[in-house]
Amino acid sequence: MRGIDELDHYELLEIARGATSGEIDRAYRLAQETYADGSLALYSIFETRDAKEIRARLDEAYRVLADPELRSTYDLEH
Question: Cα(77)–Cα(55) distance, rounded to whole angstroms?
């Protein structure tokens, strides 16, 4: 199993490469809830520092994939 730092933006948000903007938004909101401070999904699985790093990666993935120009560049590079 690959570590979270090895996942690309699509894998991190658990969406297909052809995902619509609505699907990206929904996946990001779900991921935010999943990895939020105090989330039961994080209880005794991740340390606070790890969860913070995951949220930072999720934020970056969303920033890139939600912007059509950045997403196009990302897709070409990956």
Answer: 23
DSSP secondary structure string for all residues of 5-68: GG--HHHHHT--TT--HHHHHHHHHHHHHHTSTT-TTTTTTS-HHHHHHHHHHHHHHHHHHTSH
Residues whose CB falls within 8 Å of the CB of residue 19, separated by 6 or more in sequence, listed in order = 10, 13, 27, 65
End-to-end CA distance of the chain: 20
Q: Which stretches in the chain have pLDDT values below 50?
A: none
pLDDT for position 50: 75
- Residue 3 DSSP one-character state: -
